[in-house]
Specification:
Order of helices and strands: HEHEHEEEEHEE
Number of domains: 1
Helix content: 10-25%
Number of strands: 8
Structural class: alpha/beta
Strand order of the largest sheet: 3-4-5-6-2-7-1-8
Shape: globular
Largest sheet: 8 strands, mixed
Length: about 220
């Protein structure tokens, strides 16, 4: 039966996201990884959506950025065309776990990349590798960069984002740079340092009660 696409106005559950995007009539759907927004201070190493793609094995391919200094350097040391198996992501916090993947090194870049339209004009994400794992193309970077929010972050490696059904962006709001690729996006309710649901974060040094975690009737700022 056809999958009904969820609203773009609020975060959607991860369990339905990949199937909904895969079944969408849009050429390309942006998947907003709200819990791992690099522009909000996260590290970009979430493997949550990657894991969902591997579980679902959609008919169409995904384009997924993941920050991993160790993996990026290891892959860049291999000749282009090499097949390799390793674990990626999930190194920065308890929110994410490394995921074992096997794929082919497609391209490697190092240093500054021009990204027209960005306030800073470009970014240096260090060593970046396009790693093809079949169901997805991973952009494995040494540093977070811009979290895949700009098409030229891929094009300088010979990858065209418009050729992919799903493009993961590590941001909760900065979709404007991809507007020529797609105007359809799903804000995915992923866990992480920048997640929308602050009540479920593992607070340990927070005085209680406090709004909005508790029902505080009278409070002052």
């Amino acid at each position: 039966s056809p999958v009904e696409p969820p609203s773009t106005e609020s975060p959607v559950s991860l369990s339905n996201t990949v199937r909904s995007a895969d079944a969408s009539g849009e050429r390309t759907v942006l998947l907003s990884d709200t819990g791992d927004s690099v522009l909000g201070g996260s590290t970009g190493d979430s493997t949550v959506i990657l894991s969902a793609v591997l579980r679902v094995t959609p008919k169409h391919r995904a384009l997924i950025p993941v920050t991993d200094p160790t993996a990026s350097v290891a892959l860049a040391a291999l000749p282009v065309g090499s097949v390799h198996e390793l674990r990626v992501g999930g190194w920065s916090s308890s929110f994410f776990e490394p995921v074992a993947v096997k794929g082919t090194v497609r391209a490697v870049s190092r240093g500054y990349v021009d990204l027209p339209g960005l306030p800073q004009g470009g970014v240096d994400a260090g060593t970046v590798v396009a790693f093809d794992i079949g169901v997805a193309m991973l952009l494995v970077s040494e540093r977070p960069g811009v979290g895949g929010i700009h098409p030229d972050a891929y094009r300088h490696l010979g990858i065209e984002p418009a050729d992919y059904k799903m493009v993961v962006v590590k941001t909760a709001s900065n979709f404007q740079y991809m507007r020529q690729i797609s105007t359809r996006f799903l804000r995915v309710a992923t866990p992480g340092p920048t997640q929308s649901d602050v009540a479920s974060l593992p607070w340990s040094r927070l005085p209680r009660p406090i709004f909005p975690l508790d029902d505080v009737k009278n409070w002052r700022s």
